Amino acid sequence: MRILLDECAPRPLKRELADYEVCTVVEMGWSGKKNGELLRLMSQEGFTILLTTDQNLRYQQNLQQAGVAVIENLG
Hints:
The protein is an alpha/beta fold. It is built from 4 helices and 4 strands; from the N terminus they run E-H-E-H-E-H-H-E.
C-alpha cells in the first residue's frame, strides 16, 4: 500500500505511518498540481491512498474512477 501526503497534510504524519510506504507530494515533485492531475499521477505511480485536509476533493473529482481512496480532514 502506497500512501501520498498532500501538500496541505501535516508532514509529521509521515513518521506516524512508518509501517507503510509514504511519500509527500513535494518529494514526488508534484507541488502545485491540480487535484485531477494529482489523482492521475498517483494512480500511474501505484499510490492507493491520499491523505489530505482538502474537504472538497470528493465533490470535485470522481474518486471511484480515479481508483484511489482519499482520507480528508486531517487538520
